[in-house]
């Protein structure tokens, strides 16, 4: 069933609040695929629970399931990333390059320097740091672990959700739980962060959405750019923005301890040099 038909079928049985959400979807489908559940709730003038009830009422498991079907029903976007040549003889390589530059510019423009410094200080003072993330963001967590180890920081990241859960509940005061989620609505990651926070750990979140569930859990929020639709999960743009923030954090730590960082870089480089021809 087409999304509009589905919504219209259930519309009379919806509450007034749910009907507000329905009208937003009917009138602005192109924009909604890039909104978090919190942002849609604000846009519709309702609460997150109302949005979730709306999604379930029209037959979806949840908000992400709804967004995926919404994106599939929209006309295919004619972008250079689809492999087509653009005006002026450009090709997808030029387009992708411009896109990455734009993502970095957006990342810098969205950067809250105060939040960044707070994150650097928290990481510097932490007894233990654990990076949490799943899917593509889990790969970023492993990248962050590698980057931090090279400057002598003892951090951890693990792709196994059971290990992550055990690590979360064993964290405490003086520790930092660092969650990475593009959508800010990843259940596993948010659950880990909440467990860590309940045990006294400080929480840092890296997300594309200032208004999202992960941001409400975090003590410090670092915003990234490169928003992606449900059909573009793991986009390179989002990854570039995440790695840019990770590098900024490492640079901040390096400036606090220049000599020690230089020494650790040399030690870690020598530790792997025998493994390279």
From TrEMBL:
Source organism superkingdom: Bacteria
UniProt domain SIS: residue ranges: 119-259
Q: What PROSITE patterns does the entry give?
A: HTH_RPIR (PS51071), SIS (PS51464)
- Outline the extent of the HTH rpiR-type domain: 1-77
Q: Name one GO molecular function term.
A: DNA binding
Q: Name one Pfam family in it.
A: SIS
Annotated Gene3D superfamilies? Glucose-6-phosphate isomerase like protein, domain 1, Winged helix-like DNA-binding domain superfamily/Winged helix DNA-binding domain
Keywords noted in UniProt:
DNA-binding, Transcription, Transcription regulation
PANTHER family from the xrefs? GLUCOKINASE, TRANSCRIPTIONAL REGULATOR
Name this protein carries in UniProt: DNA-binding MurR/RpiR family transcriptional regulator
